[in-house]
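User: Here's a structure from my thesis project, written as structure tokens. My advisor, Dr. K., wants to see whether a designed sequence matches the one we expressed. Can you design one independently, without my sequence as a hint?
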């Protein structure tokens, strides 16, 4: 139990990615969920793709929290999430069709709605920006103002509307047909003018009545799940129920602290928990930072340790590094502990979970970036600025690799000495203990070390 907790309230923990996403947060949340009264998403939207494998069955979750597979656990979509209601209903149906109950799913009435025009704007902006970009141009502005490589799930435009306020729609509004009708009449005028100018020929204007009908129908279906989740979480805490937050995206993609502008549009580090759920920050006493044993990134932006060679290709193949959300091949590189140490600082990680360690089996040597050389100067501090980081060359330490299959290992001692040394190197550089090691996608393929077992 953390020092800031009183006896009355349950334990509050969080699982947060410390790299560029896809660290295996979904697997870990599912593994831990059985011990918690609720699993709560606090940021992002359907840009997230969290895979859970139980007994060989694979589930891909985008909006539904990964606690849904634990029958006694509430699955809560907090106010900080941007929800595409059509996708959410599809996801619920897919789960129900596979025999998974969604009766404990709750959605915040204050979560914002991703509308079809947000997705159209996301795609149109990306297209315009990629057309304007020329990586080989001598005109530097052409390289600087570039597409982000978003998931095109409408995330940025939906959060922008939240900040604009008057054009935003919240989940609670879906149950108020009159309000929706009035809002859509005004919003469609505005969106059609802007999108018409951006897209030009072939643009099909959005119709207020069609959108109203569609969203009123979504509202009817979602109504039983819509609640004030800040109060619900307070009630659960007062009952002594432990709560687990599930970070989406990751710390390096945090809009304030990531590799801006190549980030997502929410506070996807642990810093987003308070604002995105209504649970005050001092309540969270355990923050598990998830770290893939190497680096991956999807979309644009700097990645100092990226590999463009056959080693990168073989790690991509062994790790099946293709996006859960978009199917895009993920960029692959060596582990960057400069970035991880910074992320652990920003997210306040109290322990680390190292995932996909099994994927590194067979590499004769393992490299870890413990510093950068930027404009001729060496540093071991991360630079959360996409333009400066683009000039960083990694300074590597090389360690011996291991060749054994480790997917059956269930204790730290069963790992080959080289794999143990690799974990210890991460631990000592980052300065945070490694409490769990994942050696395969299944729930069972996990090594739990004493520190974490004691804390949960
Ligand atoms: P998330 O977005 O952080 O939840 O991660 P994703 O689910 O998008 O990507 C992680 C991928 O790695 C998924 O396909 C998981 O099933 C898989 N995975 C998770 N942990 C392990 C592991 O330890 N070893 C291997 N080989 N795969 C894993
Ligand atoms: P999970 O939760 C990997 C990346 C996108 C893009 C940038 C902005 O599965 O780890 P956005 O659509 O959010 O505007 O895209 O952020 N990105 C992710 N990359 N995993 C994710 O989520 C991501 N969520 C966003 O690829 O580069
Ligand atoms: Mg993912």
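Assistant: Designed independently from the structure alone:
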């Amino acid at each position: 139990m953390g020092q800031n907790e009183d006896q009355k309230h349950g334990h509050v923990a969080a699982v947060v990615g410390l790299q560029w996403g896809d660290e295996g947060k979904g697997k870990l949340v599912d593994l831990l969920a059985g011990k918690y009264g609720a699993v709560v998403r606090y940021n992002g939207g359907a840009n997230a793709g969290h895979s859970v494998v139980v007994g060989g069955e694979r589930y891909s979750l985008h909006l539904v929290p990964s606690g849904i597979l634990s029958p006694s656990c509430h699955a809560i979509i907090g106010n900080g999430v941007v929800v595409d209601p059509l996708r959410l209903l599809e996801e619920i149906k897919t789960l129900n069709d596979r025999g998974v109950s969604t009766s404990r799913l709750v959605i915040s009435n204050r979560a914002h709605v991703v509308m079809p025009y947000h997705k159209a704007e996301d795609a149109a902006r990306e297209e315009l920006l990629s057309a304007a970009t020329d990586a080989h141009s001598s005109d530097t502005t052409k390289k600087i103002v570039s597409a982000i490589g978003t998931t095109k799930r409408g995330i940025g435009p939906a959060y922008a509307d939240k900040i604009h306020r008057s054009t935003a729609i919240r989940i609670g509004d879906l149950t108020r047909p009159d309000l929706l009708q009035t809002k859509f009449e005004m919003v469609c005028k505005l969106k059609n003018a802007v999108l018409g100018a951006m897209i030009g020929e072939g643009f099909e204007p959005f119709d207020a009545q069609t959108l109203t009908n569609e969203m009123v129908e979504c509202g009817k279906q979602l109504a039983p799940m819509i609640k004030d989740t800040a109060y619900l979480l307070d009630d659960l805490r007062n009952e002594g129920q432990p709560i687990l937050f599930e970070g989406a995206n990751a710390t390096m993609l945090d809009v304030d602290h990531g590799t801006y502008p190549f980030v997502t549009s929410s506070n996807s580090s642990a810093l987003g928990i308070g604002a995105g759920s209504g649970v005050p920050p001092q309540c969270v006493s355990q923050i598990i930072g998830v770290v893939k044993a190497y680096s991956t990134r999807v979309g644009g932006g700097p990645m100092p340790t990226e590999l463009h060679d056959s080693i990168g290709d073989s790690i991509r193949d062994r790790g099946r590094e293709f996006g859960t959300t978009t199917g895009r091949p993920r960029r692959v590189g060596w582990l960057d502990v400069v970035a991880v140490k910074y992320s652990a600082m920003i997210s306040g990680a109290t322990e680390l979970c190292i995932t996909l360690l099994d994927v590194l089996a067979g590499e004769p040597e393992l490299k870890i970036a413990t510093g950068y050389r930027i404009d001729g100067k060496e540093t071991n501090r991360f630079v959360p600025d996409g333009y400066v980081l683009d000039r960083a060359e990694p300074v590597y330490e090389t360690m011996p690799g291991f060749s054994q299959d480790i997917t059956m290992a269930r204790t730290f001692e069963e790992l080959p000495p080289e794999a143990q040394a690799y974990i210890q190197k991460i631990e000592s550089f980052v300065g945070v203990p490694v409490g769990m090691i994942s050696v395969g996608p299944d729930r069972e393929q996990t090594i739990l070390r004493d520190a974490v077992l004691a804390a949960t």
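When you compare it with your expressed construct, this may help: Confidence is low (pLDDT under 50) at residues 1-5.
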